[in-house]
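Dear colleagues,

As part of the handover before I leave the project, I'm documenting each prediction I ran so the next person doesn't have to rerun anything. This entry is a single chain, and its sequence is reproduced below.
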Amino acid sequence: MKKQIKSVLILSCLAIVGIACSSEDTIEDNILDPTIAIEVKKKEFVTNYTNIVFASYADALNKLNELKTAVDTFVATPNENTFQTAKDTWLASREPYGQTEAYRFYDGPIDGGEGEPEGYINAWPLDEALIDYVTTGTGGQDLSDDRQNIINNKEKYPSLTKETLKELSGYDSNESNVTVGFHAIEFLLWGQDNTQPSEKMAGQRALTDFTTATNAVRRGEYLVAVTALLVDDVKSVVDQWKPGASYSSSFLAMSSDDAITKILTGAAKLSKGELAGERMAVAVENQNQEDEHSCFSDNTHRDVYLNAKSIDNIIHGSYKNTDGSIVSGTSLLDILALVNNDEATALTATASEVMNKVTVIFTIGYFDNQLMDETLDNFNNPIMSAVLTLRKQGDELAQAGKSITGNTIDPSV
C-alpha cells in the first residue's frame, strides 16, 4: 500500500512539473509572438490616448474658468488693467485648447451627432456684423434682417442670455452666423482688425465700448454670457472623457483597431484637410486676413503651432500639462515600428519637419502679414512650405492607420 501511494505521489509531482513547464513555455511563446506584442501595444496606445485627451481637455477647462473669472472682473470693474487681463487670459486659454483639435473628425464627444458642441466652441470665421457694430462696408450681414447686430437690437433681444445666444448661432444654416465661442469672445475683446497686415497690429477695441459708449452695458452682458456658455460647452466634453465616463469607457471597450482608426482619422484629417487646407492654404489663396483663424487678436500664428502640436502629441504619445507635468505612454510610433519600421522612420522625420516649420511661422508672428507674401504654387515660403509637409504627414498618418488596422482612412475633410 505504501509503495502504491509513493508511486501516485511521484506521478502527481511529475504532472505538476509538466504543467508548470508547459505554462512557462506558453508565456515565453506569447512574449516572443510579434502578433501578441503588437496587440498589447495597441491597447496601451489607446489607453494612453484617452489619458492625453482627458488631460488636455481638463487643462482647457481650467484655463477657461480663469477666463470667466477675468471677464466677470473686467465687466464688473472695467479699466485698462482688467481689460488687458481678460485679453491675456483669453490667449492663455487657447494654449491647451489648441492642442485638442486632433480629437475631432470621428464623431467623438466634441463633434459627433446633433447638437455637437464644437460648433459652439471654436466655430470660425464669424461675421462680426451679427454681434456688434462694425466699420461701414465690412461684414456680410443683410441689414434688412431685424436680427442683425444683436447687442444694439434691444427690442428683438431684450435679454442677452446663454440660451438666446446659443439658439442664434448658425441660424438659417449659415455657418458665418456665429454668435458664441472662442472667436465671439475674441471679437468682443479686441474688436475688428481693420489695420493693414503690414502694420502688424491686432484689433483696437476701445475700453469705452464697455464704459461710456452706446450699449456698453449690453456689450458687457453679452461678453459675460458667451464666456459662461463656452465654459459649459467645454465642460460637457471633459465630462465624457473622464475615466469611467460613458464615452471614455466605450472608447476603451471597442476593438483596438476601431479605436486606432478613429484616433488616426482625427490626426490625419486635421493635418492634411483642416490645418493645411482650411486654416492655411485657403487664407493664402484668398489673401484675406479675415480668413485667418484668430483674426481679431492676431493669434493665428500660435493657433497653427498648437494645432500641429496636437497631432505631434499623438504621434509621440506625450502631452505636457499646463502645470508642467507630463502624461505619456505608448505612442503611435511604438506600434508602427513593430508593424512597418520603414513607415515609422518616415513618419518620425516628417513629424519633426512639421514642427520645425510651424515653429518658424510662430516665431515670425502675425500670420496675416506672412500670408500676403505667399502664393499657393510657391512652397519655399514659411506657410506653404508647412502646408506641403502637413499634407505629407496627413497621408503618412492615413497609411499608418492602414498598416496597423487594415482600415482605410481619408485624410481630407
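The chain has one domain: 46-405. Confidence is low (pLDDT under 50) at residues 1-30.

All the best with the project,
I.
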